[in-house]
Amino acid sequence: MKTVKLATSALAIAAAATAAEARDQIQIAGSSTVLPYATIVAEAFGENFDFPTPVVEGGGSGAGRKKLCEGVGENTIDIANSSSRIKQSDIDLCTTNGVTEIMEVRIGYDGIVFASDLNGPEFAYTPADWFNALAAEVVKDGAAVANPNKTWADVNGNLPAQDILAFIPGTKHGTREVFDEKVILAGCEETGAYEVFKTAAGGDEDIAEEKCMALRTDGMSVDIDGDYTETLARIDANKNAIGVFGLSFYQNNTDKLRVATMNGVVPTVESIAAGDYPVSRPLYFYVKTAHLGVIPGLQEYIDFFVSDDMAGPDGPLAAYGLVSDPELAATQEMVAAGTPMPPLN
After folding, report:
1. What would the pLDDT profile of 268-318 be if each residue is shown by its tens digit?
2. CATH dotted code for 111-280
3. Which of 69, 82, 251, 311 is deepest in the core (most CB within 10 A)?
4. Which of 141, 137, 274, 270 is nearest to 207 (CA)?
């Protein structure tokens, strides 16, 4: 196997050696969005390689990154799956705990979709619609006021006169970060509310963004801390509700859900690959490089994950709903070389 540069800390190397003695099974945790893809790869890996099938758990992107950064050694995971990019605060935590090098692996793309009961009305949204539906404060006659909207028709006369009830990912999910930034914040800017909030805050952009992303607490916006199956169950029990899902989950539940357009675009693998659908995001996993060459099969697993056979446009991950990365070849080279990620921009 290719020799991979390990972390330079003697403590990290010693801890990683202990990890090898303690276990020979790869440990993975994190994003519920990436979970099914990682599970597919892990099962195929166990069937095709002379290594145990990796243990893959969920828990959310933020929780997975936090676990990755707990340290190096037998009681720490090897990989964190994430549906949003790692934050500087994660990297700082890693550094504090002796995790000095992390490899960032982009596996492909997914879309965030908005879906309701299959037998309900059709919806055609814009980010502004979602902001005006869920924000704690909206702008009326040039001033910020508590959100008075009760139905989607109150938000936009072209939408059905259906009570607003949205089940959105909880704050520990990577999907929530993308939803906040690409839908709520984008909608805040579209409506002009961002500038109103910024002016009221004396030009402070951070406060303006916080105001944009503060959601109503009157029961119309409900955080879901579980995975998409919980959101689906909530919609089954509340036929007028709208849920936020990953594209692949929706595609595997088209017998239960009706998907909405966003800015007139239907979310599909093709529209995401073409860059037409506005609410798409890259999916990642993060590898603790101090465990490469130490935990048996770790290098082979990550090579296998990003191979054409798995993550390519004709692989099983694409069949499940992953949009293959057009720059997959560059990722394959980076993974093979064990290249740690550079500082965040």
Report:
1. 988 988 889 999 889 999 999 999 999 999 999 999 999 999 999 999 999
2. 3.40.190.10
3. 82
4. 137
